[in-house]
Protein 1
Amino acid sequence: MVLSAFDWEAIMKDALPYDEFLQRHATEAQRQRWEAADARVNLTVAQRDLLGGFVRRMPVLCLVGAWCGDCAHEIPILHQIALAAPQAIELRLLDRDARADLLEALARNGGQRVPEVVFLSEDWQVCSIAGDRALAFYRQMAKDQLGPSCPTGIVPPGEALLREATAQWLDEFERIQLMLRLTRRLREVHGD
């Protein structure tokens, strides 16, 4: 199915805010893992200032699984970014099993992966799709798995890796915000 064929507004209405998603879909152990990861994300003053300047509404849909370790590391970063820009970013989470058609449409590299993050415009156009991991996490995985050691995946990322992944996700949010600010269609709507 072509992504433009989806009713993104309806899908966003079916998706849940971060905390509600965890209440509905996560076990206590899963919720604790997500909450611990969320507590570790610290945006810098400069990052918060950047997010505070966002003016275009950005619906962001995350197709996730509460059980997924990558989701537990990645989505808390997005949650903190969204909390720093409530005037622009509307973050919603949808359980990957709720929409098999969407999961299939977002498949990449021959597989269905989570998290998948769909950045949308205020008028429900797809701006970007990102996921399943930030580049920083892939770099670390390559270092760990393509070398002499193989990690278990149970240990959360170190502070430097978390900062790098946060900066990479923030770059994608900024890229989409600038795309939305410079789009002629939306500039005409907003008179700017």
Note: The first strand starts at residue 58 and ends at 64.
Protein 2
Amino acid sequence: MCASYGLDPRFTDTELLEAADEAVLDGLRGWAEENANETVRPTGKNLRNLNPIVMQPDTAPTLESAWWGFLVGGEPSKFPSINTRSERLQDRPGGLKTRALVPATSWYEMKKPERVWHEFLVDDGALFGMAAVTQRGRTTDGTWFTCYSIVMRPAPDRLADIHDRMPLLIPASLSHDWLTAEPTREIIDEAIAASEEVSARVTARPRD
């Protein structure tokens, strides 16, 4: 389960978009600088943080501020919605109707039973994209938001002793297709296969 991640403004190398988009990258750096050293956490009743995601409603990727977790009946869902299992999307590809990339430079998981937090990075701090599915949601005051859920897949054996699942990492070469392809099982299968190359570059270390 991914319940927190980081976005460091000092990122240089990126594994986010196939075609570099300076407007998107500049927007990410700006957001990260304003939220320096803040761990990104799910949005809720009290913590009303909106986090940057990349979507492609038209011809080019765009940056949007979004609500982490789904809204149901004007409130944060009572069922776990900050993460969605990749296997569930393979069985029910209708959940892939709208998708996004969640930019990050790390994510965090607790190793049990030691209860030691670990930080996971790609290439020691490169910017990467986590797969997400999205839907629209409205709060009780009538405000509409784009809501997102990070897609989780089984972790490879070398990381599974820390946590048995990890975000589905989308390589830059698949970013366009992930954002624009038809919502079929083929795109989630392709994403899982393509994520192996990025996952092989993930390292984990205990977090101070």
Note: The chain is about 20% helix and 35% strand.
